[in-house]
Amino acid sequence: MRILVVEDEPKIAHAIKQGLEIKGFAVDAVYDGDTGLSYAQDPDYDVIVLDRMLPGSIDGTELCKKLRENKINTPILMLTARGTIGDKVEGLNSGADDYLVKPFSFDELTARVRALLRRPPVQVGAELKVADLTVDTNNYVVKRAKEDIKLSHKEYALLEYMMHHEGQIITKDMIINHVWDQDADILPNTIEVYIGYLRNKIDRPFPRSPQLLHTMRGFGYKLSATN
Ligand code: CA
Q1: Which residues touch 217 (CB under 8 Å, ≥6 apart)?
Q2: Residues, beta carbon < 5 Å, ion ligand 1
Q3: What are the residue ranges of CATH 3.40.50.2300 in the chain?
Q4: Which superfamily is assigned to 2-117 in CATH?
Q5: Per-residue pLDDT of the chain (227 residues; tens, 9 = 90+)
């Protein structure tokens, strides 16, 4: 899942980027409203974390309004230094989906981002499930046939993205755009390599269960209990 962070204080922006990357998200950070507005047009962002007070011609509230006017409906989590009811109402009225008051804990930030990713609910609750494969997205626990599976951050991110799109054909471009950030140097071949890693962990050790990760030659990949 790919996240855009718009925050003018570099320290906070970097801390958020690092914190979310550790949790397996791909994160791009920008530092003013104008850049934020142009980045946010990219439909590949799954959530936008937006600071309310930004320098330049557009602050967070303005940015939010403009996006919604442009029919960009990416979920927005707004950050603010203030937490009065009036601020909250203004943020939500401008089109933000949720609101977080600084200082906040990473656990809370991650929980709010995850809640936004579940909206509209692709799956209800924090657990994603395809056949006997389950992913507990709150605790990053992956199990198949009740056995724990250890994944690297990128393997986990790839799996979670594919679980959210169960049964759909996922192209390499979609994977690159949702699982890696824009600075990542990534070749199409890299995706094949990661799909291979994942297959070796979630499918190969479970020959009695349906194989889930399918290569759709010429198109991409599909995660599904049926072909
Ligand atoms: Ca600020």
Answers
A1: none
A2: 8, 51, 53
A3: 2-117
A4: Response regulator (3.40.50.2300)
A5: 999 999 999 999 999 999 999 988 999 999 999 999 999 999 889 999 999 989 888 999 999 999 988 888 899 999 987 667 777 777 777 888 898 988 899 999 999 999 898 865 444 457 888 999 999 887 889 999 989 999 999 999 999 999 988 999 999 999 998 999 888 888 878 999 999 999 999 999 999 999 999 999 989 999 999 87
Question: What separation in Å is there between the alpha carbon of 55 and the centre of ligand 1?
Answer: 7
Ligand 1 centroid to 18 CA: how many Å?
A: 18
User: How is domain 127-223 classified at the CATH fold level?
Assistant: Arc Repressor Mutant, subunit A (1.10.10)
For ligand 1, the distance from its centroid to the CA atom of residue 9, given in whole angstroms, is: 6
CATH 1.10.10.10 residue spans of the chain: 127-223
Q: How far is the CA of 91 from the centre of ligand 1 (A)?
A: 14
Query: Which H helix or E strand runs over 170?
Result: none
pTM (predicted TM-score): 0.66
Compute, in angstroms, the gap from residue 157 CA to the centroid of ligand 1.
29
Residues 55, 75: contact at Cβ < 8 Å? no
Burial grade of 189 (CB within 10 A; 0-12, 13-18, 19 or more) = exposed
Q: How many residues does the chain have?
A: 227
